[in-house]
Write a structure and sequence with these properties.
Length: 429
Amino acid sequence: MRCDKKKIENILAICVVSIFLGQIYISPLNSAIRFSFSVVALSLMLVFLRNVPVMLSAVAVACTIFVFRCFVGKINSPDVSLVRIMVTYYGAVVFYLVYGAMFKVLDIRERIKIPFKNFVYLFFAEVTANIIELTATSWRIESTFEDNLKVIIIAGRIRTTFAVGLYYFINYYFLRYEKEQRENKFREMVFLVSSLKTELFFLKKSTKDIEEAMNKSFRIYQNAKEPSLKEDALSVSKDIHEIKKDYMRVMTGIERTLEEKSVFDYMTIDHLFRIIEDNTRKVISSKGKKINMFFKYEENFRTLEHYSLISILNNLIINAIDAIDNEGDIRVLQYSEDDNLCFTIEDTGGGIEEEDMKLIFEPGYSTKLDMETGEFSSGIGLTHVKQIVEKYFEGEMTVESQKGSGTVFKLVMGRDKIIFNPEGDDNGY
């Protein structure tokens, strides 16, 4: 049988922690009997390390604690025989073997999740193990069985309470960590899908351009009189057609991926703002800036266009972050004007030069310089945003800026293009 390295490592970890906590004792009612907290460690590690066998772990802990105590006992009392020291500490072996058996028989790993019952089962397992240990070592204990039983019950309550309390504490932080990981993965998925949706929009636009180029090429072929020109025009037309087919395959693949990856059919503006805000704060932190974020909405509507909206707003917010040198404010507002929904993204950055205002939506225009590579940004962000707003949402995008004071981008889009009202839901919430 192949040894499971991970199981062995976990069992060794249980033994080491049990030995360490075995040095922490309590002696209720000034009893001569000492109760260590190693059983608390054993219980919790058996619960959380589910890949290790219960009895094998109990045997390992029993042996290691016994050997460790005998070793320490011999060092502290070199004149005492090893046999006598072993007789003194063999009760620990009895306790951990019985406790491991009770832990397995009572199936505490599963019942630990049940409030109150988890305390009862752990307490019963510990008291039973202690009583059997006491019976096995009663010949060397002077106090009466009744007195010792009281001490066992008190110690059992203390250690069980400690174990259950620690279980809930650790479980709480595990759940918090898992929730945070799920939320991070969810946010990453939303931004990935938003990005793909944006690229798909421009792929479709490019496909129309390709169709137009193919039609022009074919018209040249039809009208050309020279055989060589006709042949070249036909060849170009065929090549363009092949490129179009490749585009269609790519678009089909992206659309299929989007169907699989889409997390929600619709999203409320409140949820959408929270996702963008969480991502924005991470971006701000990574850039080492001190920027205050403000998100406010007038109407918490539902929308099926959440991915496109996230892509648009996120792009403008990232631009706003880049426009602020170190400290500043960014405000994202949503409100209504007649039958339109409006979004404004306002920053207190350096603003835009007046002569640049007519160029900012032109492809390739950029003032962002990568200090590491010495290259400017591709300058397609604002171009993409404007085209999505105007072509896809049939809306309008404007900008106002004052050098040294900041910039305000305003998006105006029809309510019917964004708001989703499920059948029978008049409120849109």
